[in-house]
Design brief:
Layout (H helix, E strand, L loop, with lengths): L6 E7 L2 E7 L5 E5 L4 E6 L27 E2 L21 E7 L4 E8 L2 H6 L4 E10 L2 E10 L5 E7 L2 E3 L6 E4 L5 E4 L5 E4 L4 E2 L5 E5 L5 E6 L2 E8 L3 E6 L1 H5 L13 E15 L4 E10 L1
Antiparallel strand pairs: 1-2, 2-3, 3-4, 5-10, 6-7, 7-8, 8-9, 9-21, 10-20, 11-20, 12-15, 12-17, 13-14, 13-16, 16-19, 17-18, 18-21, 19-20
Length: about 280
Amino acid sequence: MNTVSASVLTIDFHGQPALELTAPDGARCLISLFGGQLLSWIPAGGSERLYLSPAAHFDGRSAVRGGIPVIFPQFAERGNGPRHGFARTRVWQVDESRVSKDFATATLRLVTDDATRALWPHDFALELTVVVSGNRLDLELDVENTGDAAFDFAAALHSYLRVKEVENCRLEGLRNTRYLDATAGDTVKDDRLDALIVEDEVDRLYRDAPDTVVLHDSGRALGFQSHGFPDLVVWNPWEHKCKALADMPDLDFRRMLCVEPAIAEKTMTLAPGEHWSGQHTILAA
């Protein structure tokens, strides 16, 4: 019988510091300190379930294409700062890490400094907690206003999921949900179908999204449960836009689908001393 050595290790990954978490049952994940970003998740006895572009940049400056980037304090171009904010291009600190008899966990933290103030003039503390065990990945994102004035923010866990063939996938659970279609100038539409099937570029922001959706992928599935995030973004660049991405192979749009819990359509306001937290769980089957 094979035994697994549960651990939390600091490693070098493409020249960047990262944490490798291994649970007692063999479930594993990899978190880059640059961006506080998950780059890999392998459930116990399973295979990789996150997409990481083989052409991703690891230069310590550029956002890394793939995994689960943390979007904060701005979603896309909905603001005056960098696209998708600055959290994904800052180095986070390890606040806590440990292994128990059932799981491995780590909490990373990002706080205000001169560089963030130059981009966004507010004081904050951002924490990401990751728990890996069995077929389950749990993420919690926490935002605290540490300043003396209220601020508005957006946030998302921009999850790139590895799929066998995106055209064979079915995303279920969004029927009768209203969404903004970015491929049609943010036209408001209603999803009337039992499942979303990707046959062209998809860039949808589902408003007041259901807490639970399921992605079926060629005989396997991923279930998503979110709390605290009002929106759900679904994205695939398809062939034409994928070719324009320098950090992604031309045909890799077939190997990924982003399903990301978000505060995106409307920002959230935090008064001084207030917290917000959002939870996201992915279950592999």
